[in-house]
Amino acid sequence: MRQTVKVTITNIVNFGAFCDVTIDGKVYNGLIHISEITDGYVANVSDHLSVGETVDGYVISVDESKNQAKISLKNAQ
């Protein structure tokens, strides 16, 4: 079962958004790829997310050695 988390958007780039996410008590640098924002087409990430916004997401994968996590927002609400 996937883990649902709260993520805070820290930066928006053309290929997605970076975020801070806490997983099992540890803070990770997260990436939400543009294809994981919504099921529909996303032309501009800023139309869907804003820096400082907190949203629900779920963990796709975690790389402990790099302190990074891949996050999806699809079907997380």
TrEMBL record:
SMART domains in the cross-refs: S1 (SM00316)
Protein name (Swiss-Prot/TrEMBL): S1 motif domain-containing protein
Any one GO MF annotation of this record: mRNA binding
Gene3D superfamilies recorded: Nucleic acid-binding proteins
Pfam families in the cross-refs: S1 (PF00575)
Naturally occurring in which organism (per UniProt): Spiroplasma culicicola AES-1
Domain S1 motif intervals: 2-74
GO biological-process terms attached to the record: translation
